[in-house]
Please model this.
Amino acid sequence: MPQSDWWKVHQRHLQHYQLEVLRSDMATQVFRTHTGVPDPSAELCALEKDLTAACGGLPLALKVVGSQLYTDAVRIDHRLWREVHTDFVVRRSWAPQDTSEKRLEGIVALSFQNLSGTAQHMFLDCVSVLTREASKRALTIWEALWGDQGGVVRAFRELQRRALVWVNEGHLVVHDVILLLGQAIILDQKSLFYGSRVWVGDDNRLVQFDKVPTQPILTINFLGAHESSKHAISQWWGRIAFDQLRVLLGGGMLAINLLELQHGNPELGSAFGQMPLRVLDLEGCDGLKSPESLGQLTALRMLDLSGCYKLQSLPNSLGQLTALQVLHLNACAALTSLPESVGQLTALQVLHLFACGALMYLPESFGGLTALKELNLAGCNPPWQ
Model:
C-alpha cells in the first residue's frame, strides 16, 4: 500500500490502539486457533514459525494471516501454506525492525491484494459506504450491483474467511485498525481506487479528497450528511464525472441537490438518466412528490423510496425498469396507487409496501409480476382485505 499524506496523518490514530504484542507461545496458540490446525506437521511447524514471526506477535495480524490458511477440507492444503509463506515472509514489504503500525499496514495490504476482484470492491464498500450496514441489506445491494448472487456470496465468504469482515448481530463489522487501513486505499492518490467512493465521516461531513478524483466515482452514500456538506464540495463537485456511478445511497434531497450543482435539474430528472445507476436509495426524501423521470433509469435493479411521505404517485414510466429486482416503498403515507405499468416489471422479486396506509388498490396488471418472491403489505388497510 503506497504511503500518502492522508495515511501519515492517520498513523496517529492507530497509535491510540496500544497494539498488544504476545509472547511467542501465546502467538503460536492464537495463530493455530485461526488456521484450524492445532497439531501441524514438522514441515508446517517451520512455516508456522516464520509466519508468526512475520506477524510480530500482534493478535490482529495473527488472526488475519492465520485465517488465510483455514479451509473446510479434511486434508491440509500444503500448497496453500507455502503460498501464504511466500506472500507474508518472502515477499513482505515490512522489515523486522518496523513499527507495529507499519507491519499491520503491510499485512492488510497483502490480504487485500490477494482478494478476488469482486471481494476487493466489497471490502472497500465495507470500510466506507457500507460501514456497519445490515449484512442482509449489504448483500442485496451487492447482488443488485454485480448481478451474480452466487459470486457475491462466495466473495463475502472470502472476506469473512480472511478475517477482514465479519457479521455481528446482523451487521457488518470491521476492526477499527483494518477500517483505517482500508480507507487509506480509497484516499491515497496513488491508489487505483482513489476517489471511487464518497461517504460520510464520523463528523457527519463528507470525506474530502486531497484533489478531485481522476477515477470514476462508483458509489456514494450521503446518509447522515450535514447540510453544510453541499456548500463544502460545491467548489469542485461540478468537475467530477458521474458517468460510471452505480450506487447512490441516502441523503434524500441532499443527494438530488448536489447533483443539481452539475446538471441543474429540478428534481429526479435527466441527471440520473445519464448514469448507469443500479441501486438508488432516496429513503426519507421529504421533497420527492412525483419522480416523473424515473423511467430513464433502465439499468436500475434496486430502488428504495421508503419514508418519502409526500410521494403521491409513481409515473407510468416505472414499467420501463425491466431490470428492477427490488422495490421498497415502505411508509409512503401519501401513496394511493401503483401505476398499471407495474405489471411490466417481470424481473421484480421483492416488493415492500409496508405501512402504505393510503394505498387503495393494486393494479390489474399485478399478476404480471411472475418473478415476485416476496410481497409485504403489512400495515396497509386496503379494501380488498
